[in-house]
Amino acid sequence: MNTQWKLVLTFALTVAVTGPLRGQFAAQDLPASARSFVDLLAKGDFAGAIQRFDSTMKNAAPEAKMREIWRSAQGQFGAFKQPLHTRAEKQAGYDLIFVTCEFERKTMDLKVVFDAQARIAGLFFVSPRDETTANAPPPYAQTNRFREQPVTVGQGEWSLPGTLTLPAVGAGPWPGVVLVHGSGPHDRDETIGANKPFRDLAWGLATKGVAVLRYEKRTQQHAARMAAAMAALTLREETIEDALSAVAELRRTESVDPRRVFVLGHSLGGMAAPRIGKADPALAGLIILAGTTRPLEDLIVEQTRYLVSLQSPASAEAEARLAKIEAAMAKVKQFTSADGTSATPVFGACPAYWLDLRAYDPAATAKSLGLPMFVLQGGRDYQATTADFDGWKAALSSRPTVSLKLYPDLNHLFMTGKGKSTPAEYEQAGHVAESVVVDIAEWIARH
After folding, report:
1. Which domain holds residue 236?
2. In principle, which of 127, 131, 273, 445 could form an S-S bond with 265, CB 3.0–4.6 Å?
3. How far apart are CA 174 and CA 177, in angstroms?
4. Which residues are catalytic?
């Protein structure tokens, strides 16, 4: 699952379809509109708050749901105290207003996404940005040893902006790697709070002579159209098609060896990697970071139970949330092919998405491939756990072209920590561990 704190939990519900032109607020007033929206939530006027939503958000978070979401947020962060300040960004045709909100136990940014008609098209809780730390390169990245240039991945309505990071020292052609995101509407850096794991990997690997291509995820760049197509959406449209297009783009790059192009998938991208490899057996190999081997609906329940267990004792609200998620995932398990055309989402995805995942066994698919593979797992990861790593080991450990490595101190972002991993850990700026970058670069050199 995506590691940002989200008001709407999964990618399909985080943005809205553009509907009738009925914007209520001028664009120049968006920061004030976002603050007044927070004021409505603080006053408990959820009926008034949802009038700011577009049609998709109204369906995703009606009044009762919005009330539950706000209560849940205060259960996690403490009682709401006051809004502090706002900042604005533009992204993929949307205006993003960040309202920094002071809660009793934690200060968080409420990211309010406005569409072109000034309607609220998405809501997220994210960590307040530490600009200095967030923008600092990892210590192992030597910025004079690589250069970056913009690229476009794919063609037509689903084309995606990307960044190609090329070594600037020595002679090519270089081996190349395509980075494939986890779940959620990620940017090309896979930004999570103050952390940018894909940027770390790109800069670290390019320092060591590996070309890297990263790109905006389709659910980030084309959010509204993806939400409109949610009923038929599967992992192929969300992830696989664009990864294959990125591989093709990297192979066309003059300074890259087309015979040595790899795919590196993280989290959902790691789970999808064998499916990408099956679609393109000419790949040089697959690198799987925190890829899951078990059904997603089981992982969602497991993760929720883990988060509830961090509270001692667990609140009644947390237990109620767990019960609702367990019921939703039980419903997912009951889907049959007859449900495949339903447009009714469960936990942010329609039956077609869940049924597509059910038909895919990542470990078995990986075992059927002749590709070299490197599977990496953090020992402190509560999202993709050592149980998933064991699934890869059971399927692949006998293969001489497969390497598997467990990093005891690393979390889901492959960043170092101690004790039990928690969502709050993702709020602390850090970098992908140097040992991970070194190991990946050395493995690529051997293949």
Report:
1. 134-293+361-446
2. 273
3. 10
4. 267, 381, 412
Residues, the chain: 447
Q: How many domains does the chain have?
A: 2
Among the candidates 128, 155, 190, a domain finishes at 128
The 8-class DSSP code of residue 110 comes to: E
Judge if 192 and 124 occupy the same domain. no
What would the two tokens of residue 258 be? 């087309």
Return the CATH number at 45: 3.10.450.590
Contact between residue 239 and residue 362 where contact means Cβ atoms under 8 Å apart: no
Query: CA of 87: how far to CAs of 23, 31, 95, 412, 444, in Å?
Result: 21, 8, 11, 29, 41
Q: Amino acid letter at 290?
A: A
Q: Which of 14, 415, 432 is nearest to 223 (CA)?
A: 14
**Does residue 147 share a domain with residue 27?**
no
174 and 28 together in one domain: no
Residue whose tokens read 């050395």? 442
Overall pTM surpassing 0.90 (yes/no): no
